[in-house]
Amino acid sequence: MAISVASGSRNLFLAEAIYKEPGFNQSSWVSGVTFNRCIQKDISWSLWVSKLLHVQANFQCPPVSRQQKPFRGIIALCLRNNATKYFDFAVIGSGVAGLRYALEVAKHGTVAVITKAEPHESNTNYAQGGVSAVLCPSDSVESHMQDTIIAGAYLCDEEIVRVVCTEGPDRIRELIAMGASFDHGEDGNLHLTREGGHSHDRIVHAADMTGREIERALLQAVVKDPNIFMFEHHVALDLLTSQDGSDTVCHGVDTLNTETQEVVRFISKVTLLASGGAGHIYPMTTNPLVATGDGVAMAHRAQAVISNMEFVQFHPTALADEGLPRRPTKTRENAFLISEAVRGDGGILYNLGMKRFMPFYDDRAELASRDVVARSIDDQLKKRNEKYVLLDISHKPREKILSHFPSIASECLKYGLNITKQPIPVVPAAHYMCGGIRAGLEGETNVKGLYVAGEVACTGLHGANRLASNSLLEALVFARRAVQPSIDHRNSCSSLDCNASNQWPRLAVSTPLGREVIDKIMRMTGEIRKELQTVMWNYVGIVRSTTTLTTAEQRIAVLEAKWEEYLFHHGWKPTMVGRGVCEMRNLFCCAKLVVSSALSRTESRGLHYTIDFPHLEESKRLPTIIFPCSTVNSTWSSRQLHRQATY
C-alpha cells in the first residue's frame, strides 16, 4: 500500500503498490546507425594533453580550434557540431554520487559529467560531519540499521537499509584506496565520532570538511580518466524522452551552457541523475545556490514516479548571522552549517536566557535525531519570541575544538566570535530532501535508461527523517549499485544515431527579446523567487497544519500564474531558456510536490509534523507516491517541453 497523489493535484487515494516497482528492467535502444568515430569537446589545454595520450591513430575529424580538441576514446562517438554531443553515459551532477558512478561506468564507455557550476560546487562539498559506517568491532550492521529505522520513524524500507548498512564499509575503504584522507586516532585507526541518533561512534570524518575531502579525491581521479569529460556551467533543462509501448525511455538531456548562452543537447544510452536537492525552495538553507530541485522537476515532467516529498529535513544548527558580534556585510547565498558533530562532541543548546532546554523535549537531549532537535528549537524561538538559540562547545579543551572544527572556528572568528570561549548563535535551516525520484535497489526508475543516486533519489533508506551522516553513505552505495544495470542497459542499446537529436524540438535562448526585456523578466523572477521562499518558510516549515498547507497551495498557484503571465506577456516562449527562469520553473514544481505530499499525510511522522494530526498512526505508515499524470498540464512547470519521439 502507498499513499498516492495524482500529479499536480491533491485528490488522494490509496492504491496497491509495491515499494520497489515491478517492471524496472531495462529496455533496448530502439534506433541507431553507425556514425563517424570522432568527438569535439571543450576542455582545458592541460586536461586535453593528458587525454590525448590515450588517442588511437587513423581517424579523421573536421578542423577544430584549440578549445575544441579531437579525441577518440574506446567507444565510438559522434559530434557533428557543438549543439549535440553523443556519449554512452550522461551524468547530471558532480557530487559524490555522480563522480563515483562516472569513475565506474567509464571503464565501459564514454561519460559526460554535466555540472551546473564548477565541478566542486555541490552539496557534497558542504558536508561537514562525515560518513556513517560500521567500522568498529563493538558496532554492528544491525545496530546501524536500528538507528536508521528509528530516526526514519519506521518508514524506511528495511531491505534498502540492510543493503546500505552492509555495503557501506566497503564503499569507505574504496574511497581511502582512491586517496581520500580521513582523520585517524592516536592508535592509528580511523577516528570515529558520534552524531545525533547514532548509538555508536561510527562517523568517519576529515575534521569538519569531510565532503570537501571526498570531492577532492573523486575529482582528482576523474581528471585522470580519459573516458570522462566534464562539462562545467551547463544547466540541465529537460530530459529527452520517447515512448516505447507503455514504457517511457530516456535518451539524454538538454542543457544550457551559461558561459556561451548556447543550448547543448546530450544524447546518451544511459542517464544518471545525481543533481542534489531543492533547498532553495526555502529562504534559509545550507544548500549551495545550485540546489534548485532541477533533477526532481525534470524527472517529474518526464513521467518519473516521485515519493516522500513532504519530508524536508531542517538542520537544527545553521549559523544565525543576527547573533554574531559582527554581522556579515552582505546576505549569504546559503546558510553556514554548524555540524551535527558539534553536538556529538558534547555541544549543549541553550536559549538566550542560558537555560538548557533539550532534556525537556527528549531523553537523548542534544543527541536526539534532527527532526526532534529542529522542532525543539523552533518551539523555543516561538515561545520566547527570539530569533536564535545558542550552541556551546566552549567547555571542551581548546585544542580539541580547533582540531575537530577548524572551518567552523575560522568562519565564526571572521565575525568576532571565538567558539573556544563563546557560544555559537544557531537557527534551523532547510538542509536535505528525504524524498525525491523513486528508485529501486539498483538506482533504477520507472523511466527506462534513467537512474538516480544521491539526494535527488528516494531509495527508501531515510524514511521520514534522515539519520545524520547517512546521506554520503547512501550516495556512495547507490552510485555503485547503479553501475551494472547501467552497463547492461548500455550494452542492450543499438549504436547511437546521429539523427536521433532531431526528434525533439530545439530549445532557444531568450536573446531575441532584447536586453531590456530580459532584465525586466529577471527582476520579476527574482522577486517571485523570494515570495515563493517566504510562502514555503511561513506555511510549509518545521511545524505545519492543514490550514497553512492549504494557504501555501493557494498562494503558490497565484504566484505561479502571475509569473507565467508576466513572462509570456513580455514575449517569452515555452521553448525559450535562461538559467534564472528555468530554475524558477523547477522551484515551483518542487514546492508544489512538497505541498501536495504534505497535504496527503494525515499524521505526524518524522520531519512532517502537523498540529492537526500530532500523532503517529500505524495504518498510515506508508510512503507518499506521486504518480505521473499526463492529463494535468495546467502550468508550464508541470509540462514536458519535448514531444515524445516517434521511431
From TrEMBL:
An annotated GO cellular component: chloroplast
InterPro entries: FAD-dep_OxRdtase_2_FAD-bd, FAD/NAD-bd_sf, Fum_R/Succ_DH_flav-like_C_sf, Fum_Rdtase/Succ_DH_flav-like_C, NadB, Succ_DH/fumarate_Rdtase_cat_sf
GO biological process, alphabetically ordered: NAD+ biosynthetic process
Fumarate reductase/succinate dehydrogenase flavoprotein-like C-terminal domain: residues covered: 529-616
Domain named FAD-dependent oxidoreductase 2 FAD-binding: residues: 88-472
GO MF entries: L-aspartate oxidase activity
Keywords recorded for this protein, A-Z: FAD, Flavoprotein, Oxidoreductase, Pyridine nucleotide biosynthesis
Intracellular or extracellular location(s): Plastid, Chloroplast
Keyword Membrane: no
This protein's name: L-aspartate oxidase
Organism: Nepenthes gracilis (Slender pitcher plant)
